[in-house]
Amino acid sequence: MTNGAQALMKTLVDAGIEVCFTNPGTSEMHFVAALDGEPKMRAVLAMFEGVATGAADGYARMADKPAATLLHLGCGLGNGLANLHNARKGKVPVVNIVGDHATYHVKYDAQLQSDIESVARNVSPGFVRTSKSTGELCQDAADAVTAARGLPGQVATLILPADVSWSEGGVPCKTPAQSPAPVADDTTVKATADAIRNGRKTAFLLGGRALREPGLIAAARIAAHNGVTLFAETFPTRIERGAGLPPVERIAYLAELATLQLSEYDNLILVDAKAPVSFFAYPDKDSYLVPDTCKVHTLATPEQDSVASLNLLADVLGARNATPVVQPAACPGRPRGKLTAEKVCKAVGHLLPENAIIVDEAITSGLMLNALTAGAPKHDLLTLTGGAIGQGLPNAVGAAVACPDRPVIALIGDGTAMYTIQALWTMARETLNITSIIFNNASYSILNVELERVGAEEAGDKAKSQLDISGPVVDFARLAQGMGVHAVRVTTAEEMAKALEYALNNPGPHLIEAVVPESLNGVKRKVLPWLLRTLPSLPRPVSKALKKKIAP
Amino acid sequence: MTNGAQALMKTLVDAGIEVCFTNPGTSEMHFVAALDGEPKMRAVLAMFEGVATGAADGYARMADKPAATLLHLGCGLGNGLANLHNARKGKVPVVNIVGDHATYHVKYDAQLQSDIESVARNVSPGFVRTSKSTGELCQDAADAVTAARGLPGQVATLILPADVSWSEGGVPCKTPAQSPAPVADDTTVKATADAIRNGRKTAFLLGGRALREPGLIAAARIAAHNGVTLFAETFPTRIERGAGLPPVERIAYLAELATLQLSEYDNLILVDAKAPVSFFAYPDKDSYLVPDTCKVHTLATPEQDSVASLNLLADVLGARNATPVVQPAACPGRPRGKLTAEKVCKAVGHLLPENAIIVDEAITSGLMLNALTAGAPKHDLLTLTGGAIGQGLPNAVGAAVACPDRPVIALIGDGTAMYTIQALWTMARETLNITSIIFNNASYSILNVELERVGAEEAGDKAKSQLDISGPVVDFARLAQGMGVHAVRVTTAEEMAKALEYALNNPGPHLIEAVVPESLNGVKRKVLPWLLRTLPSLPRPVSKALKKKIAP
């Protein structure tokens, strides 16, 4: 006899889902019991649901297929919501298995009863289903997998009542092979080619899977042949970069900068990306960042095969054999002296090994990361796609599970690290090859900037204390040690480089607590002068335009 | 000029809301800036939203009025959802202020855009409102406070778009005084009195505010006069207990036990409580725990004044002047030898000072807590009302903020502590007089029981590893020290008692990591024999019935 959970497990494994990030409770015990019957399913336990969901996100970004999560009712899903939001915004496939009370138990409104579907809709608007019977369960699961891994990838939530899980009569079910994504049609390709040929200045805005090597090469051929600029979305799900790959400039987080970046163009061609909007709204500032004078075209939507569409466009433009401009190898020197956030990034750029995965949730402390790793050996970069902080450490867990042979380096702000600090425990439990670098500046530094940007300059001491996490200063090395992760605290650039070298030479989880001053210290009163500091990481024309604009 | 945030702040303070538990982001910056204009509003920062919401819950349980939370969009609310669920189930008033994007920004679907109202409905089905304009904001806030603090208390969620917050034209608004709750009508009181007089055996099931001293005294007078038994709901929001107060037996968590507790009664009278149902569903077991032979009556619903209703009933029964049975003072001796969870509870019972607040989220390790503190000096006990673990440490934060003159002792399981471990940082930041005792048994021990109870005995090593958090064992003392909380790790009963003594004599946050074996170690294969171990904490008749039932 096969119960629902056992059949579900088989269905998932048959569909290629081989990892489940778990934080189970009583209602999931039959699913847990079924794990032993499926050697191909790896269960990775987290001590908080936000770790499980963020790990599933990081896994899928690197494995290009979904993992499952196992969550305990509406509250477990709630705890995992923020990182599922990041997955949704990053178009990342995730299959949530959310346990629920037995169907007949719901009416009693027991302690943990809540409206799971409502919560799930926030992150998986495209697929939320409560399985009604053991007989239907596996088809429901196959539908969830199909929904999750189609283009664009999405979060699919399957709610699994305990009795549907434990009842006999489960019948495993095949998940149909993924149908190939459509390519941009000829009319669109031709119109795009015309825009490129006729435009004064044209830029691509690349997002989603167009930021992997094949998409970048295709776009870079067109760029070389037709003088098109390459932009990437602000927070890529996964971007392949480094020496030998075509460089691409990310649209800036700050609306003020993004507007400048786009100001010269009369055509913006979207490839699996949306037209840039401001991250937040600000009084008297525009939300939509594309200038009126710039026409927006769409070559490929997130539903389409962006790489094939770019190649088709290259053919039409005669650019298929053009030589793309690629990033020359160039590493910064070894940093010296008093530690700053910039020197931490410099150490990473100096030491980055071939084929690393960088997870960037360093917020203000990571301002210089892009510039300082631009010519480093080829690597993947994962970023904060949905803006819900607490993504970095869990994402690193998932990336390391997906790619056990690649070193993972997670750069995380101190404030943001605390949301899902429990990820360190899973890193230790699974002996994952992750080096977490925590920038400890004892501040929600970005909020000091934002406080001013929203025009709330009248802020007094009480307000400022809400952005200050220096009383007490968190000792991240101790937190890591408390969860079984080797950790050191560094205060000089020399120590930083040495610690990173050690970590990279000795696989297994490490944490480096980098004690740094705020990157924006002393320049909070005015945003534009502060932007000056970011100029070295920007391409020449933008720097020039910006310098002109803010010159006294 | 007054902007929306400033007027909102004034409206909240005028309504008696004096504490806001915060974890703000950019969209809340004007609310943060407005803090300095209101000296009466205390802002308590948390490094994770679940801490803020759990603290608001604990605060309101002790202050009998709501605190506000300040949360950042749908993801911040998601992170706070589990503890808001606990507040909802505990009928605890909370006013959520959830920042949102500016109204005009929503259509751009920026990174942090999500459907906040859907998420909010899970925990505040009675009041979710997105404020539409600065002019309407303060009336919206007054409505939210009114909804939250009525009977039953509830979670009210006010969604605050950034432009509604920052625009000028805010007009503070008075919140009407709370209208008195209705009392049970004469017909109901008479019918209840008749049931008591005519029944063979009758029990009260007391919940909500009926578990405070006035309600307990009223019920105990009737118990003494009419031979009625007093039960309390399984997980009270707040129960006053100890020497000099009427003792009341809580309905057991385990359905098997609860059924036995209720088996002798032919009348069960609900007072601000619902008829007992099983926490979870189990194969072939009933969800509804009241025997068919027992008739359920309702004296007072959660919407009604339960104490006044009990007093009215006492009048009708002529019990108003009866002498209630109260708990005699009796403390256990000082524990000695190798540490066990029971000895930790014994140390608490031995040393508990007058007027303490105990927060119990010790799960299996706390089995003996009730018995060992029954005759301790008067204290309040707060429990896990909604079953969403991670409530204890944040609840302690809120209780300590509400009652700065009372010592707070939080007893927390290791698994559960990790969900909201960031609460320790807020304890240090605010120098709260809390002693957190973490039972470190390196296991999700309750799930070992549940795995068997749901009939999943075939569980293999992979399944069992999902309940095992021993690799690595978390070092809670280190975690606490990393967040600025004084901490010790104890392995003997003598060390435990000494550490608790020290903590109680030296106000300020402390953490005691009690290394204990699993309470249920070696007795997992059968649930009923395990129950035997819980017998000393049960009243005589239940023990007898149970012993008879499980005798070999």
Automatic annotation (TrEMBL), chains A, B:
Protein name per Swiss-Prot or TrEMBL: Acetolactate synthase large subunit
Listed PANTHER family: ACETOLACTATE SYNTHASE LARGE SUBUNIT ILVX-RELATED, THIAMINE PYROPHOSPHATE ENZYMES
Domain Thiamine pyrophosphate enzyme TPP-binding per the UniProt entry, residue ranges: 379-513
Residue span, Thiamine pyrophosphate enzyme N-terminal TPP-binding domain: 3-113
InterPro entries, sorted: THDP-binding (IPR029061), Thiamin_PyroP_enz_TPP-bd_dom (IPR012001), TPP_enz (IPR045229), TPP_enzyme_TPP-bd (IPR011766)
Keywords, sorted A to Z: Thiamine pyrophosphate
GO molecular function, one term: acetolactate synthase activity
Keyword hit for Iron: no
Pfam families: TPP_enzyme_C, TPP_enzyme_N
Annotated family: Belongs to the TPP enzyme family.
GO biological process: small molecule metabolic process
